[in-house]
Amino acid sequence: MGLDTQRYCCNCSKWFHVTCLEATDNACNGVAIDVDKDMLSSAPTDLTTMCRLPIERSARHQLGNGGVLKKALELLRNGDDDWQSIIGEDIVRKMLQDQEYTVFHCAECHNFI
Known about the structure:
By secondary structure, this protein is of the alpha+beta class. Helix content is 35%, strand content 15%. It is built from five helices and six strands, in the order βββααββαααβ. It has helices at 37-42, 45-51, 66-78, 83-87, 89-97, and strands at residues 6-9, 14-17, 22-23, 56-58, 63-64, 104-105. Helix 2 (45-51) crosses helix 3. The protein is globular and about 40 Å long. The mean pLDDT is 84.
């Protein structure tokens, strides 16, 4: 039995099955993150890309990617130059290769998830 794909809304602090969500045309931009725009422009591209991936639990991630993405966001906010070795280079490589995500609207607050 496979794990149904679910997305997490940081705004609502709730999980939603993707089959219950409305897809958006925002797939190329990723999920909006709550970070200062100047910080984004000076941060490494790979790190900002990771921080824009949706928090998801599914068979794709062998449960979920939320812990890794929350750590990436923390490192982005702290400006840590050693972020890849802290997260793990193999994990970073896997996360950056696996970017085919549909972006959805949260069923409650309508944020991108």
